[in-house]
Amino acid sequence: MLYLLLKYLSQHFDVPGIGMFMSLSFRASMGVILALAIGMIFGRRIIRLLQRHQIGEEVRNLGLEGQLQKRGTPTMGGLIILAAILIPILLFGDLTNVYVWLMIISTVWLGLIGFLDDYIKVFRKNKEGLKGRFKVVGQIGLGIIVGLVMWMSPDIVIKEKQATRAEETHLEYVDNNGARNAVYMGPAQKSNKTTIPFIKDNEFDYRWLVPGDGPTSEKLSWIVYVLVAILVITAVSNGANLTDGLDGLASGVSAFIVIVLGVLAYLSGNVIYADYLNIMYIPTSGELVVFATIFAGALIGFLWYNCYPAQVFMGDTGSLAIGGIIAVFALLIRKELLLPLLCGIFLVESLSVIIQVTYFKYTKRKYGEGRRVFLMSPLHHHFQKKGYFESKIVVRFWIVQLLLAAITLVTLKIR
Residue ranges of the domains in the chain? Predict the structure, then answer.
């Protein structure tokens, strides 16, 4: 809203210095500061409110060290994260930008699903919470919305670097050495292309999955894309949900992921860097940098109270929303195929549960008793069972995530 006000003032009045306040870097900086402030300052008030209404975590005794000490710790702390995202983005984001609105919708949509789950657990005293099929339906619904908007919105296009100079848009700029350079990009086009890591010609077109050519095959390729969006959002959202099991684990890991996505959004939304790195240029997607910095600030601000020993848990209100936001963000900047690498912690945590459950059922059917691959799943509980301190597990997972983040950025140059 402030951005639109400043834009109006710049168009109708000569206000000195207003351009600085409208710049992407300034709005991103102010957004992350406000997000941190909301998380660290107002987060305390939200925690007290949760304590006053006795919204505490019900902890089952699973034989984990220090587990029962967490009983009664306020949950639904994801409300802090949601507030720290939505308030700054509404103030400093460009609310005419379709990418910003998709991120706002994703935040509210999955935040509400997670809130319903926590509400049923806390107030209805139902440990199961919202039934899994309803969560999946909500995630599928968001995937359909994102996929259809990507398909139908005229504002979501890409431009690709061209070898010839027949119909290109031409942009000249001066580099740091004072030399004049030119960037040649093709015309804006609707496309469901995405990026493949570690490949020289690193673009994958979902149309390749559909036989034939023409309007029908193009529509079918977009239907495939919608299905991919559903799969990505469901997988990453549930992966983040499973990772949220130790103090500061999900919020810390997610902060590294979001920072990398913000860098990728900046590069993809800047025609000069897109040309230099030979990646597709996505016009107006640079506005996602503001959202990414705000999201990272919200996670770090929440970590102030969520680090060991946690004063508040995010609950499904936070974890489902975090994973879904990351998935939608990656889809918008066409980097969803990087998620298995970038979100490697989420992936491993999810696989540990799938392997454990599948092997247990298989051995029970074959031998009459279930056997386990891990001492406990998800994976972080396996290390707890082995006797590692909770804080050590969390920090080591952070280090692994930092390594994955660095490798993800390196994929821009290694092809």
Answer: 2-410
For residue 59, which phi and psi values (nearest 5 degrees)?
-105, 125
Taking the CB of residue 14, how many other CB atoms lie within 10 A of it?
Answer: 7
**Does the predicted model carry a pTM greater than 0.90?**
yes
For residue 31, the one-letter residue type is G
With beta carbons less than 8 A apart as the criterion, state whether 363 and 370 touch: yes
Phi-psi category of 315—alpha, beta or left, where left has phi over 0 and alpha has psi -120 to 50? left
The pLDDT of residue 357: 94
> What's the rounded Cα separation, in Å, for the pair 234 and 230?
6
Q: Strands 169-174 and 180-185, how do they pair?
A: antiparallel
Measured torsion, CA atoms of residues 305, 307, 310, 312, in degrees rounded to the nearest 10: 40
What is the average pLDDT score of the chain?
87
What is the average per-residue pLDDT within 38-49?
A: 88
Q: Which two tokens stand for residue 127?
A: 């440990």
pLDDT at 145 over 90: yes
190-216: average pLDDT: 83
Cα 48 from Cα 51, distance rounded (Å): 5
Q: Which helix (H) or strand (E) holds 190?
A: none
Amino acid symbol at 202: N
Which of 139-153, 195-209, 385-399 has the lowest average pLDDT?
195-209
For the chain, how many residues are written? 415
At residue 349's C-alpha, the angle toward residues 343 and 352, to 5°, is 135
Cite the DSSP H helix spans in 78-97: 78-92
Other C-beta atoms within 10 Å of 333: how many?
26
> Looking at the DSSP assignment, which residues form a beta bridge with residue 196?
none
CA separation, residue 226 to residues 140, 148, 205, 276 (Å): 10, 7, 14, 30
d(CA 205, CA 224): 11
Q: How far apart are CA 155 and CA 101, in angstroms?
A: 12
Q: What is the CA angle 239-244-246, rounded to 5?
A: 140
Q: Say how far residue 82 (Cα) sits from the centre of its chain.
A: 13
